[in-house]
Design a protein that fits this description.
By secondary structure, the protein is an all-alpha fold. The chain is built from 14 helices and no strands. The longest helix has 38 residues. Belongs to the binding-protein-dependent transport system permease family. This is Carbohydrate ABC transporter permease.
Length: 288
């Protein structure tokens, strides 16, 4: 065979290489499209209001306005909104993780008549959309005199979440029975088996539940709008929607974008610290 000829094997390799290059370029294009809104958010956040209104808009600001951050806190009660959102999110995470893992442990470790039927009934509640429950919950919390407080937003988290219970239960069922048998022989109570054995070994599942719960509470708007009316109890979602000026009918988009950038920081930090557990398979066994 002459040196200039190409074998079928080399042709196949060249074909695969061309496909890989095409896929790589396509992924770059899709990545740019996905990242562009975030780039535009950062760019708009550090522009002056006059520059924001210019057309056509520019990605790179003519003058970087770092004073927008200070102006945001001076013009609005952004610090108070941030503290309220942090408080509600942390309490919701604690309540969801503890209550959901406690119920999931019972479904995973106990054998009782009707357990499967009860578990199916629990999962069926996931099919109910929030608007169906909105009015009955509103009437209940109003009769309890919980309106304009954080109680309607945080207390339900301590009664578990059907999806979180299902998620943690799947992990608990993968734990070795020998662990609990040995603990039971040593005189460990059922509560201590959950708290000292199942709970510490459930890092991946609990981290996933914590992330989902935090994001759900952090981004919640409808539930918070229903029960919070006083400005000192506003959260980020309510406060940022109230930044629309009724006097000038003009949205301060640069301040809104700065507010959005600061609002994303806790989500990014949470995922960065919990990424190690989040990407792990929650079906891993507790015995190594």
């Amino acid at each position: 065979m002459s040196q200039g000829s190409t074998s079928p094997k080399n042709k196949k390799a060249l074909t695969y290489s061309s496909i890989d290059i095409f896929v790589f370029i396509l992924l770059i294009i899709l990545t740019v499209i996905m990242v562009f809104p975030s780039i535009n958010m950062f760019s708009t956040g550090f522009k002056s209001q006059a520059e924001v209104l210019k057309f056509p808009p520019k990605i790179i600001p003519e003058h970087i306005e770092f004073a927008n951050i200070k102006k945001l806190f001076q013009t609005y009660e952004y610090g108070r909104w941030y503290r309220n959102s942090i408080f509600i999110a942390i309490v919701s995470v604690i309540g969801t993780v503890i209550s959901s893992s406690f119920v999931a442990y019972g479904f995973a470790r106990y054998q009782a008549k009707g357990k499967q039927l009860l578990f199916i009934f629990l999962l069926s509640t996931m099919m109910l959309p929030y608007p169906v429950l909105m009015i009955p919950q509103f009437i209940l919390f109003k009769q309890l005199n919980w309106m304009d407080s954080f109680l309607p937003i945080t207390v339900p988290a301590f009664f578990g979440s059907a999806y979180m219970i299902f998620l943690i239960r799947q992990f608990f069922t993968s734990l070795s029975n020998e662990l609990f048998d040995a603990a039971r022989i040593d005189g460990c109570s059922e509560f201590r088996q959950w708290w000292n054995i199942a709970f510490p070994l459930s890092g991946p599942a609990l981290s996933t539940v914590a992330i989902f719960s935090f994001i759900g509470s952090w981004n919640d708007l409808l539930g918070q709008v229903l029960y919070l009316s006083s400005t000192e109890k506003f959260t980020l979602t309510i406060g940022m929607t109230s930044m629309y000026s009724s006097a000038t009918r003009l949205m301060p988009w640069n301040l809104v974008m700065i507010a959005a950038i600061l609002a994303v920081i806790p989500i990014v930090l949470l995922f960065a610290f919990a990424q190690k557990y989040f990407v792990q398979s929650i079906s891993m066994t507790g015995v190594k």
